[in-house]
Amino acid sequence: xxxxxxxxxxxxxxxxxxxxxxxxxxxxxxxxxxxxxxxxxxxxxxxxxxxxxxxxxxxxxxxxxxxxxxxxxxxxxxxxxxxxxxxxxxxxxxxxxxxxxxxxxxxxxxxxxxxxxxxxxxxxxxxxxxxxxxxxxxxxxxxxxxxxxxxxxxxxxxxxxxxxxxxxxxxxxxxxxxxxxxxxxxxxxxxxxxxxxxxxxxxxxxxxxxxxxxxxxxxxxxxxxxxxxxxxxxxxxxxxxxxxxxxxxxxxxxxxxxxxxxxxxxxxxxxxxxxxxxxxxxxxxxxxxxxxxxxxxxxxxxxxxxxxxxxxxxxxxxxxxxxxxxxxxxxxxxxxxxxxxxxxxxxxxxxxxxxxxxxxxxxxxxxxxxxxxxxxxxxxxxxxxxxxxxxxxxxxxxxxxxxxxxxxxxxxxxxxxxxxxxxxxxxxxxxxxxxxxxxxx
Length: 441
What we know:
Blueprint: E1 4-7, E2 15-18, H1 24-36, E3 38-44, H2 50-61, E4 65-69, E5 72-78, E6 89-92, H3 97-106, E7 114-117, H4 128-137, E8 140-144, E9 147-153, E10 162-165, H5 170-181, E11 186-192, H6 197-204, E12 209-213, E13 217-223, E14 232-234, H7 239-251, E15 256-263, H8 270-277, E16 283-290, E17 293-301, H9 323-332, E18 336-339, H10 352-362, E19 366-370, E20 373-377, E21 384-389, H11 397-410, E22 411-417, H12 429-435
Helix pairs in contact: 1-2, 1-3, 1-6, 3-5, 4-5, 7-9, 7-11, 9-10
């Protein structure tokens, strides 16, 4: 079976409603917390992507059983530190940095050594940010110079810690929070603001966690070694998946779209703030709160006149997974868009900042780079007619999505490789595109 697609035509005008894939971050966290609950948790609308399926495989390897009945995953947990771990267990996190970093937090009290591995891309990602706090808790860790493979051996002599997380990494923060569940006493974290799904889920579960928010930081305290009961959870749509259809609509001609039931957690909607500052007219309707998370329908329509932005770096953490597609909007905007302190993009599945710049140059956009700051010189008249083949780009699902949206809005004849990468986060992506009229071969 071929692992590429062809797009030769821009998409025609559309007026439609869609539902995007379920939130990957919440899907993974709901599984991991269900594995630590007492009883059978029921999770509905779980994203069935590779990263999430690897999370299910992981808890099964750790002795937690689950069954899928219709659209509901029933996960039977045995409480905190309730894993039934065998000797010589190997966990394969695949491409998922979220799974790899968070599961380490739940293994700080393991009886036997566990080896963590991942695919080629994940094996190039630095784990020093979680290794340091895990060692402070008392876990024994061996690594390949802070890269995978990693061996972790827990201890019965865990201690609570005080830790400053000043990068704005939700994965690091969540790893520490999950480690604290197994630790006696109170663990305190002073964390730069980032997505807060783990904290919200624990509050929903009535776990003793306290959070004080300031404009840029969170002060979090967790009382360890408290059990919590099984729960029911319905996973909402993923704003990161919706982002590509938002930009598809903005850059298309005379088009409108409603994206139903999307998670609009304030720590995740930096892209909405940024695009509206650039002239888009994105609105939230039918807002509601479900288990601590804010959910809404997203209304978006085409926009002819887009403006450049001097993007405040305080928005970086809430848009870190969406900057690639934001760059495409900047490419069509009038003037020079400025983005600062984007080094965190290069800590993702690929060096996304480097590849984003390379992609913009491929389609004829001038980019000035100053370390991790970039200026994008937009061209409102940009349309493409050349042949493009996505060579020399790593197997990164968001690069694939970006290429498809570019082809469908700016034109050109495209051969886009690594189709299978969409299974990491959004398996239904191409099906939705075809349903709204995209011609994809």
